[in-house]
Amino acid sequence: MCIKLLRDWLNRWLTPSQAPADATLARAVEYLRDVYGVRVMENDPKGRARSWRRSELVILTETLHLLGPAFYKPFLDTPLHIWIDRKPGGGTYGNHWLRIGEPGRDVSILYRIILHEGTHASNEYRGWPYETRFCTKPGLDWRKVGGEWVHPRQQGKLPEPGDWETLPVDARDVSTSPAEDLAETVRYFVHSVRDEREWLWPLDKSRPPIHLWDTSPTRFVYVRDHFLVLPDDHPWYKRLAPAVEARAAANLAG
Ligand SMILES: [Zn+2]
């Protein structure tokens, strides 16, 4: 289903004039459970969760639809529980529960947290393929030294010179481990292909968003072809120059 049809369909379901509001919201919650394996929770063990708003259910559904089946299929076997904390501030994922701090009126916060924390969840549910199979390959460049993950562009350090790919980040680079690297890279991928420049912090906002993929093509191709496994007619599918595509593919195969 294309995203416009999905949005129309959701909005029809969720229009309070057609049915009691709680009944239509309940239907949207069932859809999230049955199609994406996502349980929209309105109670958490500590009693901090609040109920969901219509706009939040719409953006959650749309985002899962676009991220696609490679991303959400594992949740159908082991459900992912998502809840909104009445307390604002960030998001966290652990043990099949994804917390979103109160986003207030800015539903984009919820969307951005789903991209990042949902990536942690999807990577874990699939047995951490980024860590177990990919992150040490050329172009991704993670190494384990004395039990610690290291990378030439680690947070707070000047990048070591060398033949490796980078994201044009400042010293606040959050990629301190492969899991963080992937969660941030998926976020950058989505924001760049959707031209959502305002959310590309801490990247250089003066450059076009797709600039990311000139300096880190292997990450781009990894997200597109291995993590999200996007079909080539997907609205987020972008192709790099043939020589760059070939180099990234060779890195990921190596
Ligand atoms: Zn994270």
Radius of gyration from CA coordinates: 19 Å
- Please estimate the helix content: 40-55%
Number of strands: 7
Strand content: 5-15%
Question: What structural class do helix, strand and pairing data support?
Answer: alpha/beta
SSE string: HHEEHHEEEHHEEHHHH
Euclidean distance between termini CA atoms: 36 Å
For the residues shown, what is the average pLDDT? 88
Major sheet: 5 strands, mixed
How would you describe the shape? globular
How many domains comprise the coordinates? 2
Task: Name the hetero compounds present.
Answer: zinc ion
Q: Treating each run of at least 4 consecutive H or I residues as one helix, how many helices?
A: 10
Write the layout of secondary structure elements.
Layout: H1 3-13, H2 21-36, E1 38-41, E2 49-50, H3 54-67, H4 69-77, E3 80-85, E4 91-94, E5 97-101, H5 107-125, H6 129-134, E6 143-145, E7 148-150, H7 178-193, H8 212-215, H9 217-227, H10 242-253
Parallel strand pairs: 1-3, 3-5
Antiparallel strand pairs: 2-3, 4-5, 6-7
Helix pairs in contact: 1-3, 2-3, 2-4, 3-5, 4-5, 5-7, 7-9, 9-10
Zinc ion (ZN) binds at residues 116, 120, 180, 183.
